[in-house]
Amino acid sequence: MDDKAMLMIPGPTPVPERALTALGKHPIGHRTGEFSALIGEVNAGLQWLHQTKNDVLTLAASGTGAMEAGIINFLSAGDRVLVGSNGKFGDRWVQVAQAYGLNVEVIDAEWGKPLDPEAFRAALEADTNKEIAAVILTHSETSTGVLNDLGAIVAHIKAHSKALSIVDAVTSLGAYDLKVDELGLDVVGSGSQKGYMIPPGLGFVAVSNKAWDAYERATLPRFYFDLGKYRKTAAKNSTPFTPPINLYFALHAALQMMQDEGLEAIFARHDRLKRATRAAVKAMGLPLFGADECASPAITAVAPATVKAEDVRARMNKKFDIALAGGQDHLKGQIFRIGHLGFVADRDVLTAIGALESVLVELGHDGATPGAGIAAAAAVFKAS
Amino acid sequence: MDDKAMLMIPGPTPVPERALTALGKHPIGHRTGEFSALIGEVNAGLQWLHQTKNDVLTLAASGTGAMEAGIINFLSAGDRVLVGSNGKFGDRWVQVAQAYGLNVEVIDAEWGKPLDPEAFRAALEADTNKEIAAVILTHSETSTGVLNDLGAIVAHIKAHSKALSIVDAVTSLGAYDLKVDELGLDVVGSGSQKGYMIPPGLGFVAVSNKAWDAYERATLPRFYFDLGKYRKTAAKNSTPFTPPINLYFALHAALQMMQDEGLEAIFARHDRLKRATRAAVKAMGLPLFGADECASPAITAVAPATVKAEDVRARMNKKFDIALAGGQDHLKGQIFRIGHLGFVADRDVLTAIGALESVLVELGHDGATPGAGIAAAAAVFKAS
After folding, report:
1. Which of A43, A290, B38, B368 could covalently link to B285 via disulfide, CB atoms 3.0 to 4.6 Å apart?
2. pTM of the model
3. If 0-12 CB within 10 Å is exposed, 13-18 middle and 19+ buried, where does residue B349 land?
């Protein structure tokens, strides 16, 4: 059946009709009072979502572009940086930092395990000359569904007193209670096709005053991603280059929906979706990839033993038109990932679990009674 | 009246309903066979539009991002470059080149006048050690409506035998018969909200084999805009980072419409719109900004003497809901610009001229008989 596809991947995430309708409107001039007013409302909404008074700047770019901007605007070639890596995106920030000639020290953890805050404490304490200019972290590691303990790591960075915290919040923003100001995060990057509930094409960077001070000293070359230009124009509800007007329309609609729902309800919903999904997966007799203690509210990774991950994905797709994500890099074929990020309701998780149970029956998985997954999710929903 | 706005600016340009409908569709996964097939068709369409066998790569970025990518991928800090500048966008490429530490020699011309090909010949011939690595040019200077003589300048670059030609075709591609392969252009940048007839958010870069050779030697830092990554994934109908899926949907629809119309018809239409607009402006007794010989097919700049440019724009907007562009930088208040780029029909030009004549009557302009503009445009249409 056409047009029945259901996205349960960590991005693009489902887009509500209100955002799609806004997206499909005819563009207006971006140098008009009408569009300026929209930019003003969008920027206020972004600050609300980030729980910050910092500038939150919008770029025509993917999340990777936003994170690159978050790195190159505040550093100079040769600067020492610590990069946490326990998945594909942590690895990507290592690559970005190296591409720009930073002096990179990697603190890694096995994929599926969280970063160890103590390793950061040790590295920061060992840096007695305070040479470390920044610590670059992935909050929710999309490739594995692991949520790193940002609070603990950032506390060590704060104790260090000099290093900036540069955080990839691509799959945590809008899903997890990320208090940018309370934590004192310096740079926070994200992308539109995630918790924002709109299609890809916009990247976001929140920038603290401490980071702006570093910007003044930073010498890496930049032009299109020069955040100073974006800050200057944002103050006038404008943009330095032609903005993706229609994605702004959609963003405006989606931020309004998020404000109607409220932060507390949004975070509670994602937490509930996570717990229901994990309870169901366990009840289905499938091993979770990653422990409950470090589980992302956006995505649940499963490492099936009795069936092949790619068979599960193929059948979910073919029989029920549900897209799940596969494993990346060396996890290809080893895991599948269920996205429950953004415009996802309790009902959608039940749908995915019901379909997964049906597929497991087909594939001859005998680790659980069919229906046990739905029962486990129902128990979570009853208790929530 | 709501939703009656008409864009006669050089970007965003009007978007056909077919592209808007595609834009507002629910996104699909970008790592699916369905989306790969779409990327394949889009890439073939882009090559057709560029009249090239070169790679044409698509970035999530504005046209400025695409041009920056076109500069930084093929050069190293300290490289000598010639940059032609006779308007805001030429100035911008000077700024980009300087931001990346290139050794910039500017060949300029007064805003409203074309670049002098002889100045390029002289500079290239004086470079007896063949140190000039690239010549960076704006084809259609959006800020003034001047079309530079690319053919003549590129002939001098070819005679030089080493320098790359890096061309901003943002408001010429899809409006002017720009034969990328026949001219032997090395790098051509453009943006989606122009001749492509879709909203902003995508940038495009066409890259020749000679440019790819230079890429291997170039040492400027890059990651998100590293075109090698885009080339590698394009060969597999994929993208290195999450693409703006919905803008791809719209692009796919728009390229199909362009292919249905045909290149010859598209270029003839833009030429006709240009001639009709210029004939009408002259008949209205308004001075054109820039000579007929170097007039852009995308945009006509007018430097009114008897009325104020900003009064014209304000009344066109208020009375008839038609957006015209103003002057930029030192031309602010001196000129207004009529866009006739992309999804613009003969009828639209008549509409704009009729409204302009009406506004001139209101403003007390007495340089022409009301209706003379329409009559002049009609004569062009009759002869075309």
Report:
1. B368
2. 0.98
3. buried
